[in-house]
Amino acid sequence: MEMKKRISLELRNKTPAEVAELVVDNCRSSDGEIEGLTDEFKELEFLSMVNVGLTSLAKLPSLPKLRKLELSDNNISGALETLSEKCPNLTYLNLSGNKIKELSTLEALQNLKNLKSLDLFNCEITTLEDYRESIFELLPQVTYLDGFDAEDNEAPDSDADEDDDDEEEDDGEEGPGQLGDYEEEEEEEEDEEGSESGEVGLSYLMKEDIQDEEDDDDYVEEEGEEEEAGVRGEKRKRVAEDEGEDDDDEDDD
User: Fold this and answer.
1) Nearest Cα to 69, choosing from 105, 45, 101?
2) pTM value?
3) How far is the C-alpha of 118 from the C-alpha of 121, rounded, in Å?
């Protein structure tokens, strides 16, 4: 697909001024020049043109907010002064897999004062003796060359990843941690309340059972007393009857 058509598709009903990131990797430039990219992309911060057959950056438009530029696997051999003129705020530049051979070719990057990371993998220049030391001396503003600093410390993946890590740490300290502790405290309180209510319920039931037993005993005692009273009543009745019979016998006499 031609670069101009690809850029048109990538807009997706947006205007060029609304686009902050643009990726047109693996499309084709008909004459080795940038096509379809204009000054209207004034808000563009990230541009990727990997393996599109570029041989020149002469037609690169003015992109004042561009911070990251991917140009790997093209056929660029020089004329890098366009970058400092059109993209003065670049912080990351990937020229891996291009035809850059001489240190003098990179002198044009000295005007990119904000450039922190430069990649030159698979460029012929990397075979030069003292290649890394020479680049860091030529471009003192560069911190990372081919992913490592002058002391061979690896570069972070990206600024976005660092920001994400910071946000996750903040969330862990303030948000979920406190919420989790609060929920645990609530669960502990519920467990304590449940155990207390369980104890109260158990003791209450035991008291009820004891009371029921006492009531049963009272009922049995009352029945016994009634039976005893009945027996005593019958005895008194019999005694009275016997005495009546004796009085009748005496009267007859």
Assistant:
1) 45
2) 0.63
3) 10
